[in-house]
Please model this.
Amino acid sequence: MLERIYLALDFPNKTQAENLLKKLPQGLGIKIGLELFLKEGLDFVKKIKAAGYNVFLDLKFHDIPNTVFQAVKQVADSCDLLNVHAIGGIEMLKAAKEASLNTVKPPKLLGVTVLTSINAKTWSLMGGQGTIAEAVEKRALLCHEAGLDGVVASPLEVPLVKAICGEKFLTVVPGIRPKGEVQGDQKRVATPKEAIAKGADYLVIGRPITRASDPARALEAILREIKDDGRN
Ligand code: C5P
Model:
């Protein structure tokens, strides 16, 4: 089950990030996002990968197809999961996929559908058409058509994505909040157990572990919660 969790290693520098990793079991997936990447760069990503972790490089590329193609090429050999914004459009998605194949062991390429921090009110204020679920559905189909391996979506949307894109199409879900945990900026949330029950392939979990007074215990509690689901 540990390999189904990607820890969002959201720290300002590698010293703090590595201090946390020392407290947690190997086998956990590691998600490196903008905060740490902009400080420590690709060398740090490679170091984490060389240490044996599966790495999700969460840079959410969104630009014209050629720029995204070149960006994906720069990082494809350094990670196991990589993402781009689905709203970049079909040509950008296809360019990203093509670039991701340019390495011996291509990473799984994911499209970000609608950020889990967006709720119905924000959606309507930003000019979103229809419901968030409808947009997730359209964007997931676009990613599928472009040959991507899956999407990043809310746990609540996993059944919808699987129904239209197939069981093998990966769903990677942030917005995970164990019962009683503060939601913070996340809006479309579910507990770890709910996310697994809905069929999510990978869970991205940050602050419920990284900000816990005892991160190892917080992780253990999450694992215990989902253990009896029968899918692990
Ligand atoms: O701390 P928390 O559990 O909210 O962390 C979630 C992580 O997942 C953050 O690093 C955030 O950048 C990332 N993420 C997200 N929503 C997406 C894609 C990535 O929250 N759609």
User: Anything to note?
Assistant: The beta strands are 5-8, 29-32, 55-61, 81-85, 108-112, 150-152, 170-173, 202-205. DSSP finds ten helices and eight strands in the chain. Residues 2-227 form a domain with the TIM Barrel fold (CATH 3.20.20.70).
